[in-house]
Amino acid sequence: KNEVEQSPQNLTAQEGEFITINCSYSVGISALHWLQQHPGGGIVSLFMLSSGKKKHGRLIATINIQEKHSSLHITASHPRDSAVYICAVKGVDKLIFGTGTRLQVFP
Amino acid sequence: DARVTQTPRHKVTEMGQEVTMRCQPILGHNTVFWYRQTMMQGLELLAYFRNRAPLDDSGMPKDRFSAEMPDATLATLKIQPSEPRDSAVYFCASGLVWGGLTVTNEQFFGPGTRLTVL
Fold first, then answer.
1. pLDDT at residue B26 above 80?
2. A88 to chain B: which residues are within 8 Å by CB?
3. Distance CA A85, CA A15 (A)
4. What's the mean pLDDT in B49-67?
5. CA distances (Å), B5 to each of B23, B45, B75, B88, in order?
6. Would you say residue A1 has pLDDT above 70?
7. CB B31 to CB A44 under 8 A?
8. Based on CB atoms within 10 Å of each CB, which residue in A76, A104, B32, B97 is the most buried?
């Protein structure tokens, strides 16, 4: 069993839909990262959170430490949100990555 | 515009050849990570450095891989000899950790080196 599991693996949506990507982990962590990997391959860090909720524009990330679960929400999705979203948990320094969720948003 | 740079961006080589990948972390960052991404394994940590000292290289096959930081502005990842299974995208990332806390709240990723070993 992977230490970090994401669901769904693939997700398609129509522009404007509300999107949720889930991440569950089985190890103790100091923080959790959400990363976005564009079709061109570049990786951008979206959030790092250790409790509660963070919001940046149309993106919202939440974490429940007791349940070892995090969600990434995208409101009013847009085709430019199409990317792979990767959850990664952080122990002391190291990141352990989930396998990613491939999101495609169609106009 | 501070960003992590990696060279080369693409490398095609033959099995058995030595490969050296370079990374320039963001100026002032004291932690450098090397990651590898493949279709089968996804992203995985190979090694990381703090203040140029290696802290963890347990993710790296030691018989053929080596990682160094000759100075604070350069990190290198070397494969000798290379094998077809090393074909992957290798990412470098940097961050700032101070007093045990991640100051920057994130890791900044370079564009990656796409390695193909024939």
1. yes
2. 43
3. 17
4. 89
5. 6, 18, 10, 18
6. no
7. no
8. B32
Residue B14, chain A, CB below 8 Å: the answer is: no
Query: CA distances (Å), A69 to each of A23, A44, A59, B105, in order?
Result: 6, 21, 17, 19
Average pLDDT estimate for B2-17:
96
Question: If you average pLDDT over residues A7-23, what whole number do you get?
Answer: 97
- Give the distance from residue B24's alpha carbon to the nearest chain A alpha carbon, in angstroms: 16
The answer, for B54 touching chain A at a CB cutoff of 8 Å, is no
Say which range, A3-12, A19-28, A58-67, B48-57, has the weakest mean pLDDT: B48-57
Token couple for B15: 């099995």
pLDDT tens for A33-82 read 999 998 878 898 898 888 899 998 999 999 999 999 999 999 999 999 99
Contact call for B108 and A31, based on CB within 8 A: no
CA B39, B115, B105, B103 dihedral sign is: positive
Burial of B14 (0-12, 13-18, 19+ CB in 10 A): exposed
Contact B43 A97 (CB under 8 A): yes
**DSSP H or E stretch at residue B90:** strand B88-95
pLDDT for B97 beyond 90:
no
Chain A closest-CA separation from residue B83 CA (Å): 23
| B93 contacts in chain A (CB < 8 Å) | 43
